[in-house]
């Protein structure tokens, strides 16, 4: 229960991060009042592994269950705090781990649905409950009697023999302190107000962004505007228009990132520009969906909060319990890479400009041209055509013969689709997961296609976490935003989408292999800068020759992808990496800039601040804008990645370094997989993350494999030798 920030996020969400949010289950007497006995949340689900009974859950069930859940947990907590007996590990820490059963049950489902399949009712509940939920968490963390018990146990923790239990006490103590348990009463009140305001603003941000992204879609009545699209894409655009009841029109929905994948295909330069502007200005129209005013306040109040808690900046507060420890470490990792990344991006731009000139385009490359000409360069220099590749990536085959196949090879697990488990939307699929010995171990849901009522991006989370203490098994899910094919057509996806499938499934493996006692330490309940490690690590297997050959088959003929095309795809791997690295670093440094504002600062002009920050970090390269501009940066304003967007890169250092361990030790073997599962994937956060990694690798992580994988190391060497 005391992973306080993530709990809050569960309610405020709009988490376009792919990282999971977490909450912890507990068990307690379910004292359902008669008026609420029909509410499916009031009793544990009788479905396998307590899977949510979506066939019984109605929108009207959430709010009463959330309210009652908070009430029950407060009663449980007060009982622990007020008991007469001296504090013991069992009567205080373990007892807390068991609290909040109902609240966890409902908030996990609510958080998931409000993000993946929302509607006005759910948004309204979210708006109403988010500040109450923030207050609820404060009521626990700022309870002085409870903290006194935790502190007493912490002060005598050397007497606890079991390492996991001792570490749990340390975690509890740290979480309480970080949540403000040691503050004066006056400061506690101020903190409570700031927390409530922050959660309200975060919820508002998510809702405004969703509305703005929907409103920002490109609508045309002239099909010629979408010239360059395949017949399938045109049909999908017509379907999207029908869904919005726009007859005789075509609709292109916005993706959450600055650059839109469709830019690569649109031959009409004016449409590309229109699309780029629709994307970058989606939340800056000065209308009800403009997010800038609330961002100004969010940045300011987070700085205030940090000061209250004894930190110079919000980033310093946030990173203190992460692997990175300080913003300086995170910023250094990134700024060290800026020259190579921007240098490489400039080289890429020069090649594209040459192409524009050769075609007598007569214009200077603009940001909205980048994807289009990058695709041309890719075709010319790598002879690689996205349209020729996609037929080899049919979603269902990628899932079974790629994602599942790799997991079986490494970990021995198998899968069986279940059609009898209720889902929240007809596109959602459910699979039962079996361990190497054939024993059932988990459930996994996949919700792959884009919808207007789904937040952007891709993510993983759980409906139920594994816990030895509570006897629960994992129920995990993946959500993505792949373009839904027109009715009756196969879903042909890009290699980037393939990678996303492996990525999100890597998170799911982390959740499903969890083998810990305490809910607080389960699965993906790790530091944020570690949590992307298992997911990004799993991406590597998409390109492993034996795996790739198994899933990359033509959807009509079943023919494997021709060796020549495979070689080209492989060669093109470091293609456009200057762009990808630069747009990521720009966003991640922007995040640090917003969260290193000193306390007491005036409200910042959002656009001016952004420009100045990018300049300060020497990443103000106009042709490559940040992956997310400030005003639609959901990770940091609406999701759980405030001061934490660097975490993807931090985790990437780990995942590339770990992948090299596999290379050094015989590659993709069942034995190596088992070792990784035992030492990393099953461990949750049973110890400090750096210690966990060191035990696996035999040393601290090295940044060299990452530079090599991104093609940044070679670039540096080339320059030196010139
Ligand atoms: Zn992820």
Structure write-up:
Strand 4 and strand 5 (440-449) form a beta hairpin. The chain folds into four domains: 4-210, Neurolysin, domain 3 (Orthogonal Bundle), CATH 1.10.1370; 218-282, no CATH class; 330-338 and 577-721, Orthogonal Bundle (Neurolysin, domain 3), CATH 1.10.1370.10; 391-558, Neurolysin, domain 3 (Orthogonal Bundle). Mean pLDDT is 91; it is low at 1-35 and 715-722. Helices cover 53% and strands 6% of the residues. It has 722 residues and is mostly helical. It has helices at residues 4-12, 59-82, 89-97, 101-116, 120-141, 144-155, 163-178, 185-215, 231-243, 269-280, 292-308, 314-319, 327-335, 338-358, 370-382, 386-389, 395-411, 495-512, 528-539, 545-551, 563-571, 577-594, 606-616, 634-637, 647-664, 670-681, 689-697, 704-709, 712-721, and strands at residues 218-220, 250-252, 414-418, 429-434, 440-449, 459-464, 475-482. It has a five-stranded mixed β-sheet, with helices on both faces. Strands 1-2 form a two-stranded antiparallel sheet. The site of zinc ion has 6 residues, from helix 18 and helix 19.
What's the SSE blueprint?
Elements: H1 4-12, H2 59-82, H3 89-97, H4 101-116, H5 120-141, H6 144-155, H7 163-178, H8 185-215, E1 218-220, H9 231-243, E2 250-252, H10 269-280, H11 292-308, H12 314-319, H13 327-335, H14 338-358, H15 370-382, H16 386-389, H17 395-411, E3 414-418, E4 429-434, E5 440-449, E6 459-464, E7 475-482, H18 495-512, H19 528-539, H20 545-551, H21 563-571, H22 577-594, H23 606-616, H24 634-637, H25 647-664, H26 670-681, H27 689-697, H28 704-709, H29 712-721
Parallel strand pairs: 5-7
Antiparallel strand pairs: 1-2, 3-4, 4-5, 6-7
Helix pairs in contact: 1-4, 1-5, 1-8, 2-3, 2-4, 2-5, 2-6, 5-8, 6-7, 8-11, 13-22, 14-15, 14-22, 17-18, 17-20, 17-26, 18-19, 19-25, 22-23, 26-27
Zinc ion is lined by residues 18-19, 503, 507, 532, 535.
């Amino acid at each position: 229960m005391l992973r306080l920030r993530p709990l809050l996020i569960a309610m405020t969400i709009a988490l376009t991060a792919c990282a999971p949010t977490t909450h912890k289950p507990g068990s307690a007497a379910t004292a359902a009042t008669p008026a609420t006995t029909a509410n499916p949340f009031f009793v544990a689900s009788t479905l396998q592994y307590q899977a949510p009974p979506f066939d019984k859950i109605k929108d009207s069930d959430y709010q009463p269950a959330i309210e009652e859940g908070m009430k029950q947990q407060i009663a449980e907590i007060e009982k622990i705090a007020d008991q007469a007996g001296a504090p013991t590990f069992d009567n205080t820490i373990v007892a807390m781990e068991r609290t909040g059963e109902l609240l966890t049950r409902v908030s996990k489902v609510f958080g998931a649905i409000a993000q993946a399949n929302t509607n006005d009712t759910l948004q309204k509940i979210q708006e109403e409950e988010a500040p109450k939920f923030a207050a609820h968490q404060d009521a626990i963390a700022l309870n002085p009697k409870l903290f006194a018990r935790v502190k007493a146990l912490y002060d005598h923790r050397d007497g606890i023999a079991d390492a996991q239990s001792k570490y749990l006490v340390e975690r509890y103590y740290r979480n309480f302190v970080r949540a403000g348990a040691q503050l004066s009463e006056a400061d506690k009140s101020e903190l409570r107000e700031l927390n409530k305001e922050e959660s309200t603003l975060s919820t508002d941000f998510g809702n405004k962004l969703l509305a703005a992204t929907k409103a920002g879609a490109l609508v045309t009545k002239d099909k010629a505007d979408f010239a360059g699209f395949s017949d399938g894409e045109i049909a999908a655009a017509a379907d999207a228009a029908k869904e919005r009841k726009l007859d005789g029109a075509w609709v292109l929905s916005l993706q959450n990132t600055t650059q839109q994948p469709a830019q690569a295909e649109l031959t009409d330069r004016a449409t590309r520009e229109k699309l780029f502007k629709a994307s970058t200005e989606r939340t800056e129209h000065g209308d009800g969906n403009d997010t800038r005013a609330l961002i100004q306040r969010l940045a300011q109040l987070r700085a205030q909060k940090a000061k209250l808690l004894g930190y110079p900046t919000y980033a310093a507060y946030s990173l203190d319990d992460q692997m990175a420890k300080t913003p300086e470490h995170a910023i250094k990792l990134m700024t060290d890479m800026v020259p190579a990344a921007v240098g490489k991006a400039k080289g890429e731009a020069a090649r594209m400009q040459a192409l524009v000139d050769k075609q007598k385009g007569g214009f200077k490359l603009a940001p909205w041209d980048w994807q289009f000409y990058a695709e041309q360069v890719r075709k010319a220099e790598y002879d690689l055509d996205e349209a020729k590749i996609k037929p080899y990536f049919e979603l269902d085959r990628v899932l079974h013969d790629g994602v599942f196949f790799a997991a079986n090879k490494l970990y021995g697990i198998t899968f069986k689709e279940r059609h009898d488990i209720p889902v929240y939307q007809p596109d959602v699929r459910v699979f039962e997961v079996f361990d190497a010995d054939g024993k059932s171990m988990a459930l996994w849901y996949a919700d792959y296609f884009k919808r207007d009522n789904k937040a952007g991006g891709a993510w993983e989370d759980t409906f139920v976490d594994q816990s030895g203490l509570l006897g629960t098994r994992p129920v995990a899910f993946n959500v993505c935003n792949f373009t839904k094919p027109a009715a009756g057509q196969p879903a042909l996806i890009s290699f980037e989408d393939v990678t996303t499938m492996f990525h999100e499934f890597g998170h799911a493996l982390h959740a499903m292999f969890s083998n810990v006692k305490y809910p607080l330490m389960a699965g993906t309940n790790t530091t944020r800068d570690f949590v992307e490690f298992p997911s990004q690590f799993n991406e590597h297997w998409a390109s492993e020759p034996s795996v790739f050959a198994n899933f990359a088959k033509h959807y009509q003929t079943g023919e494997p992808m021709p060796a020549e095309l495979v070689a080209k795809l492989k060669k093109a791997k470091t293609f456009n990496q200057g762009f990808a690295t630069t747009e990521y670093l720009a966003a991640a440094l922007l995040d640090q800039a917003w969260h290193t504002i000193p306390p007491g600062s005036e409200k910042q002009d959002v656009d001016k601040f952004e420009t100045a920050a990018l300049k300060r970090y020497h990443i103000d390269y106009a042709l490559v804008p940040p992956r997310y501009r400030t005003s639609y940066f959901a990770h940091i304003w609406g999701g759980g990645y405030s001061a934490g967007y660097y975490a993807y890169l931090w985790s990437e250092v780990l995942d590339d370094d770990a992948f090299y361990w596999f290379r050094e030790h015989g590659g993709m073997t069942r034995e190596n997989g088992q070792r990784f599962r035992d030492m990393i994937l099953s461990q949750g956060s049973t110890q400090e993350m750096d210690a966990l990694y060191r035990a696996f690798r035999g040393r601290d992580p090295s940044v060299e494999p990452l530079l090599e994988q991104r093609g940044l190391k070679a670039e540096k060497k080339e320059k030196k030798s010139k």
